[in-house]
Amino acid sequence: MTHFASLCSSFVYVQFAQGAVLDSILSAFRSICGEDGVLLGEAVREQHGKDESLHRCCPPDVVVFPHCVEEVSALAKVCHNHQLPIIPFGTGTGLEGGVSTKSECAACLCDSSCLEPGVTRKALNAYLRDTGLWFPVDPGADASLCGMAATSASGTNAVRYGTMRENVINLELVLADGTIIHTAGKGRRPRKTSAGYNLTNLFVGSEGTLGIITKTTLRLYGLPEAMVSAVCSFPSVQDAVDSTVQTLQAGVPIARIEFLDDVMIEACNRFSSLSYPVTPTLFLEFHGSEQSLKEQVSTTADITQSNGGADFQWAQHAETRNRLWKARHDAWYAALALRPGCKAYATDVCVPLSRLPQIIVETKEDLIENRLTGPIAGHVGDGNFHCLVVVDPNDPEELHRVHLFTDRLARRALAMDGTCTGEHGVGLGKRALLCEEMGSMAIQVMQGLKDTLDPNNLMNPGKILLPKAL
Ligand SMILES: Cc1cc2nc3c(=O)[nH]c(=O)nc-3n(C[C@H](O)[C@H](O)[C@H](O)COP(=O)(O)OP(=O)(O)OC[C@H]3O[C@@H](n4cnc5c(N)ncnc54)[C@H](O)[C@@H]3O)c2cc1C
Ligand SMILES: *[C@@H]1O[C@H](CO)[C@@H](O)[C@H](O)[C@H]1NC(C)=O
């Protein structure tokens, strides 16, 4: 194991101030990160007030770009003194409205500042290219590493390498009052520890509501000696998922195992000019030595064949493999292309593997009954799948149907001992579901932690936890 630390920087201040107070705040911001670091232009504010979700609200008033943790801390102190809310911003690829200003802020004056762009996962891997190391956590978008820590992101490699939760080992943070802390102690990166409460874990997935992440220390992996990918079609969802479970049970250290339903495969075929059979399909990838690959591949091939898997297509050349995985990572855009002009909302439930076939089958029935377009792509080895519901944002009736559908799907997952969100986070849209999932006592503990760390509710207010009843 080795590590990497990145400074994450762009973030957004939201402010509700006017006149002289505003001027003094702006000049304080400028004295901290320079004229260039404080932006008020409409385009930059628009860009920092939204993510890739359907949630829309007014943009922040100011965007600030700090250059180092000391500047972030100084900015946070100014905000603390003036009671100004702060919304951290990574790359804005989030899917749950995490960077939105509150929807009731019709008259809001927002200050947002981004000091330098946060390091993204692809930039890190480009930087590591010649070292023989890589960082495997790969959400579909090229997100910032600090944003990924903030949402506890994962992706197609999680089944083998884990999510951000397993791979962040230390965080540098700025708290609401400007205090700088290191969650595992400054500079520490032991392989294991029993040193007190796990503060790192508390901040992973906190979505900017507890503090601003300015640096993350990550676990890196040696690049595998060899890789093989494969595509396999199945007669039914059950057969595809049974193959997944049996492959994992057989101890095959599979690196990626992704499910695409017939609708998703058809969308990918069209979007990426492919010609896979239009049936439930698995995309697989194996990492290891040449010798171990042979074993992994032959065990998996036996298992898939015994479950009716057909049309095996193996790909060892980097070019063919990259084409396959690019198609998978483009699934979002392939889904959007099914209905030009529409937007997509990605559900994100995660259930115990044994319940996966049932929930996918029920979800597909629900989509058909309710006349919705929702191709399904899943990190099936983790029991996590996304139904990418493509919807006309200008059709309130359809939006309402989508909303009811996503609620039903989340409740179905909760009834099967799962969660409403495997990797996208709670943001604005899943706050009520989080209460159902956790129960009121656990929510009270979460609220207590929030009150302790951010007593004035300045850090990304209104996300994760519902506003307290007045
Ligand atoms: C096409 C597509 C595919 C995707 N696929 C996946 C996937 O497979 N798996 C997955 O997990 N996600 C996926 N996502 C969602 C998204 O990429 C992740 O949620 C990602 O972690 C967001 O990172 P970001 O830097 O864009 O954060 P942003 O969208 O900028 O912010 C997300 C949240 O984190 C907070 N935040 C950002 N930076 C910081 C910081 N420095 N300190 C504290 N809080 C911060 C924000 O306030 C907000 O609440 C996908 C998105 C798209 C558009
Ligand atoms: C603490 O949490 C971090 C982040 O989730 C994780 O990587 C680490 O392994 C945890 N440490 C222990 C001792 O559990």
Automatic annotation (TrEMBL):
<dbReference type="InterPro" id="IPR006094">
    <property type="entry name" value="Oxid_FAD_bind_N"/>
</dbReference>
<dbReference type="InterPro" id="IPR016167">
    <property type="entry name" value="FAD-bd_PCMH_sub1"/>
</dbReference>
<keyword id="KW-0274">FAD</keyword>
<comment type="function">
    <text>Involved in D-lactate, but not L-lactate catabolic process.</text>
</comment>
<keyword id="KW-0809">Transit peptide</keyword>
<dbReference type="InterPro" id="IPR016164">
    <property type="entry name" value="FAD-linked_Oxase-like_C"/>
</dbReference>
<comment type="subunit">
    <text>Interacts with CSRP3.</text>
</comment>
<dbReference type="Pfam" id="PF01565">
    <property type="entry name" value="FAD_binding_4"/>
</dbReference>
<keyword id="KW-0007">Acetylation</keyword>
<comment type="similarity">
    <text>Belongs to the FAD-binding oxidoreductase/transferase type 4 family.</text>
</comment>
<keyword id="KW-0285">Flavoprotein</keyword>
<dbReference type="GO" id="GO:0004458">
    <property type="term" value="F:D-lactate dehydrogenase (cytochrome) activity"/>
</dbReference>
<dbReference type="GO" id="GO:0071949">
    <property type="term" value="F:FAD binding"/>
</dbReference>
<dbReference type="InterPro" id="IPR016166">
    <property type="entry name" value="FAD-bd_PCMH"/>
</dbReference>
<dbReference type="InterPro" id="IPR016169">
    <property type="entry name" value="FAD-bd_PCMH_sub2"/>
</dbReference>
<dbReference type="InterPro" id="IPR036318">
    <property type="entry name" value="FAD-bd_PCMH-like_sf"/>
</dbReference>
<feature type="domain" description="FAD-binding PCMH-type">
    <location>
        <begin position="56"/>
        <end position="223"/>
    </location>
</feature>
<feature type="signal peptide">
    <location>
        <begin position="1"/>
        <end position="19"/>
    </location>
</feature>
<protein>
    <recommendedName>
        <fullName>Probable D-lactate dehydrogenase, mitochondrial</fullName>
        <ecNumber>1.1.2.4</ecNumber>
    </recommendedName>
</protein>
<dbReference type="GO" id="GO:0008720">
    <property type="term" value="F:D-lactate dehydrogenase (NAD+) activity"/>
</dbReference>
<dbReference type="GO" id="GO:1903457">
    <property type="term" value="P:lactate catabolic process"/>
</dbReference>
<keyword id="KW-0732">Signal</keyword>
<keyword id="KW-0560">Oxidoreductase</keyword>
<dbReference type="InterPro" id="IPR016171">
    <property type="entry name" value="Vanillyl_alc_oxidase_C-sub2"/>
</dbReference>
<keyword id="KW-0496">Mitochondrion</keyword>
<dbReference type="GO" id="GO:0005739">
    <property type="term" value="C:mitochondrion"/>
</dbReference>
<dbReference type="InterPro" id="IPR004113">
    <property type="entry name" value="FAD-bd_oxidored_4_C"/>
</dbReference>
<dbReference type="Pfam" id="PF02913">
    <property type="entry name" value="FAD-oxidase_C"/>
</dbReference>
